[in-house]
Structure formats: structure tokens, C-alpha cells
Amino acid sequence: MLPAGPAAATTTPTPTPTPTPTPSALAPASVITITGDTTADPYLCAVVPWATAGRAHYTWSLDGAPIADLDNRCYWRDPKNDSGKLLSVTADEATDTGTEHGASAQVGPLATRITVPRLAVIGQPDAGSKLWPEFPGNPQPTPTAVPATTPPLQLTYAYAWTRDGAAIPDATAAVYTVKPEDRGHRLQVTVTVSTYGSSAAATADVLVPATRRAAGFNADGTADVFARNAAGDLLLYPGNGRGGWLAPQTIGWGWGGFNLLLAPGDFDGDGFTDVMGRDDQGRLFLYQGNGSGGWKNAVQVGQGWQGFTAIIAPGDFNGDGTNDLLARDPDGALWLYPGNGRGGWLEPSVVGLGWQALHHVTSADDFSGDHAPDVFGVDYLSGQGPLRLYLGAGDGGFRTAAPATVGWGWWDLKAVGAPGDFNGDGDVDLFAIDSAGQLTMYWGAGTDMARYDAAGRFKGQATIGWGWGGMTAVF
User: Fold this and answer.
1) Which of 207, 233, 267 is at the close of a domain?
2) Residue 29: predicted pLDDT
3) What b/e readout covers 297-320, taking b as 16+ CB neighbours within 10 angstroms?
4) Distances in Å between the alpha carbon of 349 and those of 235, 248, 322, 338?
5) Residue 316 belongs to what domain range?
6) 86, 156, 236, 379 from 201: Cα distances, Å
């Protein structure tokens, strides 16, 4: 018997291990976008990246702190509470395939956008007078803030006045009273408008010129009128500041030798109103006022002026802080003779052409309320006698080439002049003397012109004097 062979080996299967799933990181939240302007729009909305069925729940947060009881896709701005904060939102929604979750980045900080209109300084820049800022226009604009709310956001205003860029102590009110030391300097006001952490500002400025003739001749601060009678006496008719007169005074004799008289304001820099006269030889004399209705000295300040057909005193026409003269030559060219503030002159220049057609050329200083001297003239080539107003630019020129027509029927007047603010309402006025010797004052409206960007006009008129026909000069 053959021996048996070895038995077949039984193979034991090696179990294959079941791979252990590796936990994957949780999928990041979907990115939510917040739409809207964080400084202007009344609401901001969340845009989720999945197709929502409108069942999403939203949680809005300010600076990371959830806002209670707010489960809306849009967040309505509340500037009182959210200004300066960062806004974010999360959203969750149960869908047929699971739960969607998303979060936004922080946007902001939330703010209020304030728009401030153009600013202007209103009032006459004379020592003792008041200035204040306004937003000019018709209708007058006001600062606005967005987002709009109900009720509207309350705006606060802060004021700061400076002199040549340096803060004026305690000048933080809206109204500023001009001081004597402001003469020759530039005043600027800054108005800052604020609400709930946001602010915007606007500025405006004005140059305070040398003393203008509107300050008066007798130190009472009211506008006066000068007149020369047939005997050559120079009389002062003081205004009472309310559109009427105080008792007249004779302040000079022997003035009959002058063929032209004018009051330039303070021409020599001492702060007092002066008078100028041109004689038949063309010499120009300065009579220095003493500030109390009398005189200091008389000095010759020019010669060769006999060729000019008109000489007027506009005040500070070139904006350098000193008073000037304008003179028209026979060819109709208008010359600017800038004063140097010490009784002398700077270099003259031509500032206009074609002025030969105008009669009764005079200056009302600043008639339009923009702090730039203006010039009047009656166009005698027109049969209707229109009164033209040439608006000064404040820099030695005119704002526009074409004048504004502010009156009709001025062709037969004996004299036209401008004493300054004669009735105390803050606006420069104009007077006219007719052939019957009546003096009528035309009340200016410069403040309204500046506030409402209005065209040149008068508020009204009043006849306040009779018997002026015998005067040989009124200025």
C-alpha cells in the first residue's frame, strides 16, 4: 500500500479592514453679500447664494452683537443707533436637501452723508456792523442728510470765525460783530453741520476794507450827505440812521473853486472819512477828516486830473483793503487808481471801455450784497433813461461785461449819488435829485440780493428833501 500523501493546506483568509472614514472639515458657510450704500441708502439687503424659497431666517449684527427681534432680509437704517458701527448678517434656511447656512463680511462703518450748500457771508463788513453766514439761493437751500428718516435727522450747527486764518477768541456764534482791528484783514466763517457722528463743513470769507464813506463823517456811525451851496460853503447833512436827517452843519468855506467833489472814505489810513476835490488846474486835493465832523489837514495828492470826465469813489475796488478811485477819460476808458492806504497811489490800470455813453456815473460801494463795490450809470443814449448797474468782481474788474438794468426814467435828474446805508437796514442806498430840487432816496436791497441770488433792485423809495436844486454839488 502506498503511503498517503500530505493533506492539502487550508488557507485562512486575511480579513480586509474596512477603511475608516476620515471626517472631512465642515463646509464653510456660503458667502452672503450685503447690497446698498452704507452712507446713503435707507436700507441694506442680504443676497444669499442659494435658491431660497423665502423661508430663510436672518440675524443682523452691529459690531458683532446680534440685533434682537430682527428677522428680515433687509436692514432698515437707524442712524441714531447704528452710526459708526459695522454691519453683518447670517442666514439659515431648511431646504429639501438639507440646511443652508451663510454669513457676510462686515460692511461699514455705517454713516450719514451730509451735503452742505454754498455758503456766503451776509452783512456789511464795517466796524460795528454784524456779519452772519447763510446759504444763498431762491428758494434758499438747506443742508441735507441721508439716509432719510422719519422724522428727519436733527442737524446741529457749529460756527468758527477766523481772521487771516487765525481763530478769533470766543467767536463761535453765528453772528459776528466786526471790530476796528479787523480792517484790512480777511474774516472767514466755517459752518460745521453734524448729526450722529457724521459731519460736513462749508466756509465763506470777506475782506474788511478801510473805513468806507458809509461810516459817516461825524463819528456817529450813520451815513451822511455832503452838499455845496452857491456861495461855496460846504455843508454836512448828517443822517439819523433811520432814513431822515439831523441838523445840517457848515463844515467849510471857499469850496467854490472845485469843479468836482467826492468822498472816498478813509483814504489816508487813519480810520476817518475824507473828502477830495479837483480844481480847474486838474490838481486833486485830499481833505483829511478828523472823525468828528471836522478837518485835520489838506494835502495835494494828484495833478493832471482835468482830462477826466467823471471821477467816482467806489471804495476798495481791487480787494486789497484800501480805498480807490475810478476815473473816466474822454475816450470812454474807465481807469482804476488804487489807493495805497497812506494818501497816495499804486499803479493805475484800465478796467473798462465804452463808458462815454453813461451819465451820472456813481458808485454805491457794495450795492449787491456780495462785498464787491458796484458802479451805477444812466444810459443817456436810450430815450427811456435806464439806470445801469455794473457788478464789481472785488478784484479790480467787473463780474460780467453786460450791466443789469435796475431802473427807468433817470435821464432828467440833476444829481445821482450813494451815501451808503441811509436808513439803517444794512443795505446801501442811492439818492437822486430831480429838476424840482426834490431829493429822493432809493432803498437798496443788497441783503436780499445776496441771500436769494436776486437781480439788482430797490425795496422802495422816499422823498426826504426839498430845495436841493440850488446846490452846486451833492455827494
Assistant:
1) 207
2) 66
3) eeeebbeebeebbbbbbbbbbbbb
4) 34, 38, 16, 9
5) 213-474
6) 25, 12, 47, 44
Q: Is 405 strand, coil or helix?
A: strand
Nearest CA to 388 out of 373, 374, 402, 406 is that of: 406
Amino acid at 260: L
d(C-alpha 424, C-alpha 429), whole Å: 10
3-state SS, 231-270, equals: CCCEEEEEECCCCCECCCEEEECCHHHEEEEEEEECCCCC
Edge-to-edge order in the sheet of strand 130-134: 120-122, 130-134, 176-177
Beta bridge partners of 337: 325
DSSP symbol at 471: -
Q: Please state the pTM of the whole predicted model.
A: 0.82
The three-point CA angle 221-226-227 to 5° equals 160
Residue in this structure with the C-alpha cell 489838506, named with its chain if needed: 298
Report the relative pairing of strands 224-228 and 234-238 from DSSP bridges.
antiparallel
In a domain, 19, yes or no: no
254 beta partners: none
Domain presence at residue 68? yes
Cell 440850488 belongs to residue: 470
Cell 472819512, residue located: 273
Residue 152: is its pLDDT beyond 70?
A: yes
Per-residue pLDDT band for 456 (boundaries 50, 70, 90) equals: low
Map residue 393 onto helix, strand or coil. coil
Please answer whether residues 314 and 324 qualify as being in contact, where contact means their C-beta atoms are separated by less than 8 angstroms: yes
pLDDT value at residue 20:
41
Amino acid at 158: A
User: Domain total for the chain?
Assistant: 3
Exposed/middle/buried for residue 190 (C-beta within 10 Å: 0-12, 13-18, 19+): middle
**Can you give the C-alpha Rg of the chain in angstroms?**
39
Measured between alpha carbons, how far is 378 from 433 in angstroms, rounded to an integer? 14
**pLDDT digit string, tens, across residues 260-304:** 999 999 999 999 999 999 999 999 999 999 999 999 999 999 999
Task: Enter the C-alpha cell of residue 381.
Answer: 443814449
Same domain, residue pair 147 and 277: no
Residues 6+ apart with CB under 8 A from 12: none
DSSP 18: P
Q: Which residue has the higher pLDDT, 333 or 10?
A: 333
333 and 456, same domain (yes or no): yes
Cell of 429: 442806498
In a domain, 403, yes or no: yes
Q: Where are the beta strands (DSSP E) in 332-428?
A: 334-337, 349-352, 358-365, 374-379, 387-390, 404-407, 415-420
Cell triple for 331: 475816450
**CATH code (residue 165):** 2.60.40.2700
In a domain, 8, yes or no: no
